[in-house]
Amino acid sequence: MTRKIAFLPGDGVGPEVSAAARRVLDAVAETHSLSLKYNEYLFGGAAIDTAGDPLPSETKTGCLEADAVFLGAVGGPKWDGGALRPEKGLLDLRKALGVYANLRPTSIAAGMEHLSPLKIERAKDVDFLIVRELTGGMYFGDRTEGNDTARDECLYTREEVSRVARIAFEAARKRKGKVASVDKANVLATSRLWRNAVNDLHQAEFQDVEFSHVLVDAMAMKLIQAPADFDVILTENLFGDILSDEASVLSGSIGLAPSASLGDGARGLFEPIHGSAPDIAGHGKANPVGAILSAAMMLRYSLDAGEAADAIENAVAGALEQGRGTSDIGGEDTTASFTEAIMALIE
Ligand code: NAD
Ligand code: IPM
Ligand code: MN
């Protein structure tokens, strides 16, 4: 069976880390006898420059016809302030694919605590999963934008909250059995709806899962103070965006953090959580691990190749244990040499 991957390198370091992920995918395809077919499409700023649209219809159709979509990153100063934004293409793609649940794992392996900016005792045993709602909230509400007044609407329906909460509770059952739902229910109406909907689902179907509510400002603190206390962290779109960048640094660098965005079918969107990193683009020093681990998540969640995903994750862990790495984690590797070190450990 040939698996079809829509491949969107995007902007800045996007093409650099995507190329690294593709090399690793090719290596694992070889050892695990997988047939992967990549169709590459223009996306983001690159697509604005060439086609006048961050999500050209050919790209959208190609993604909808694929078994999985892999994305590097989009955006950059070149397109900031323009009428068309690369980021809008990303939001439209997430919506078109119906990927409402964004999984962003953070863990610190035993022996790798020194990469964390936290004290060793706080970095020990960190292993949690942020489940971020991805197709609702303030990202998709009505906006008005004037010189003196602007407005961004935040809207959630009970159904939007329940379906992503279900993903979080189900994930917890396969992990440590705990969910912390994050909101700002002391101020926001959407957060009170969020809290009620998650409570109701927990009561009705998931009473075996240990469950708590945490206000988002307190969660920003607890992620630093006691990150090992958490298992699954469920939250809305904007809070999840912010908390996941914070979380990524606990393991050493945002360059290490992968993500999977899933909906009701098998087809998902897989991208590192970092952006186009314009400050380091073109220097060959971007950390490829976030992209490589996103490729592993793609194999596991969309391409029915869990063993190949394990092989990639083990190879990444092995290379880190050997002290390999790019400068963001204190290493001396380039993107290419770090990628090769990982490829060499694929079994
Ligand atoms: P960023 O994530 O691109 O960079 C933040 C910092 O992290 C920078 O110092 C950067 O050098 C570093 N960094 C990021 N990825 C790295 C990697 N792989 N290896 C080593 N260091 C890495 O965030 P930003 O600078 O706020 O945003 C830049 C652009 O990217 C903006 O246009 C933004 O809209 C866009 N963006 C896109 C995505 C996406 O495509 N999913 C995500 C976030 C930001
Ligand atoms: C991310 C990014 C995007 C988001 C931007 C580029 C639209 O920051 O994937 O985390 O906010 O979702
Ligand atoms: Mn983000």
How would you describe the overall organization of this protein?
The chain is α/β, with parallel strands linked by helices and 347 residues long. The protein has 2 domains: 1-100 and 258-347, Isopropylmalate Dehydrogenase (3-Layer(aba) Sandwich), CATH 3.40.718.10; 127-249, 3-Layer(aba) Sandwich (Rossmann fold), CATH 3.40.50. It is 42% helix and 18% strand. It contains 12 helices and 12 strands. The strands form 2 sheets. A 10-stranded mixed beta sheet has the order 2-1-3-12-11-4-5-10-8-9, with helices on both faces. Strands 6-7 form a two-stranded antiparallel sheet. α1 runs parallel beside α12 (335-344) and α6 (158-173) packs across α7. The longest helix has 18 residues, at 14-31. The radius of gyration is 20 Å and the shape is globular.
Helices, strands, pairings?
Blueprint: E1 2-10, H1 14-31, E2 35-40, H2 45-51, H3 57-65, E3 68-73, H4 86-97, E4 101-107, H5 120-123, E5 127-133, E6 143-145, E7 150-152, H6 158-173, E8 178-183, H7 189-205, E9 210-215, H8 216-225, E10 232-235, H9 237-250, E11 260-262, E12 269-270, H10 289-301, H11 306-321, H12 335-344
Parallel strand pairs: 1-2, 1-3, 3-12, 5-10, 8-9, 8-10
Antiparallel strand pairs: 4-5, 4-11, 6-7, 11-12
Helix pairs in contact: 1-10, 1-11, 1-12, 6-7, 8-9, 10-11, 11-12
3-isopropylmalic acid (IPM) binds next to helix 4.
What is the share of helical residues?
40-55%
What share of the residues does DSSP label as strand, in percent? 15-25%
**How many beta-strand segments?**
12
Question: What profile does the largest beta sheet have?
Answer: 10 strands, mixed
Shape: globular
**Which structural class matches the secondary elements?**
alpha/beta
- Summarize the helix and strand pattern as letters: EHEHHEHEHEEEHEHEHEHEEHHH
Radius of gyration: 20 Å
User: Which small molecules are bound?
Assistant: nicotinamide-adenine-dinucleotide, 3-isopropylmalic acid, manganese (II) ion
Whole-number average pLDDT?
Answer: 98
